[in-house]
Amino acid sequence: MAMIDVLQETIDYMETHLLEPLTISEIAKQANVSPFHFQRLFTVLTDMSVGDYLRKRRLTLAAQELVSSDLKIIDVAYKYQYETPEAFTKSFRKQHGVTPSAIRKGLGKVNAYNRLVVHVQLKGANPMRYRVVKRDEFQIIGTRRTFSLRNDKNTRDIPKMWDQAAQDGTIATLAGLNNGEIKGLLGVCVDNQVYTSIEKVEYWIAAESSASESDEFEKLVLPASTWGVFEVHGPAPSAIPKVWKEIFSEWFPSNPYEHAGTPELEVYVDEDVMKEDSYAEIWIPLK
């Protein structure tokens, strides 16, 4: 339960500091994890990013203040961490559907987002299919890029990396070099630092292979680990996020393991990840 408790404590920290400039690094430090792992946990369990939550809560409180006080709109904008009234008005209209001045005049309705409270789900009705695997260190080869965690840039740009890898032949070449125990292409998140003010994550498209490093591909040795290997059935874009959510909201709270903090893998076994009976796996290092 510690993971859920820590997440709630961190949400409480965000709420206490809504009127201050906050970064993912500062927030993640409260949870004693890296910015990437905190963002992953938060997004999986709440269906929104850290930035989305902060924005929605600030705009909810800003709307309430416009209705209940005489504070100038420009001062409300600055109070809730907007650099200009124009940026505040644009974001305000996107959430509430009307301008700040309209809300002040009683025109339109506030689209309010309440403070988050995390609840653990111990359903047990739908069994999760997984196995625990112990492996010595093994090598992967592939191509890597570094993505910013700010403004959810990583979630938008990683799919583009896969599209490019499909078009330029990278995926086909890696599939041909796959000669390890894991049969399938790998999406690998590598978080090299536990505490960092650099809000970035390294992402690999790779395959388990004994091939040497080349001009085309780099190699990475994954440490000896105990892995939780979770089955994913169905089209990847919907099925994989669903299993991630079940892992964090149901499996971890009811099992004695913690995330080991080393790289985690998404394994795409089927070539066609969009078909209804597509099969994939999520590999999580455990301790």
UniProtKB/TrEMBL annotation:
Keyword DNA-binding: yes
Keywords, ordered alphabetically: DNA-binding, Transcription, Transcription regulation
Cell cycle in keyword set: no
SUPFAM superfamilies cross-referenced by the UniProt entry: Homeodomain-like, Probable bacterial effector-binding domain
Stored InterPro entries: AraC_E-bd, Cass2, Homeodomain-like_sf, HTH_AraC, HTH_AraC-typ_CS, MarA-like, Reg_factor_effector_dom_sf
Domain (HTH araC/xylS-type): residue spans on this chain: 8-106
UniProt-listed PROSITE patterns: HTH_ARAC_FAMILY_1, HTH_ARAC_FAMILY_2
Pfam families xrefs: Cass2 (PF14526), HTH_18 (PF12833)
Stated name of the protein: AraC family transcriptional regulator
Protein source organism: Shouchella hunanensis
Taxonomy of the source species: Bacteria, Bacillati, Bacillota, Bacilli, Bacillales
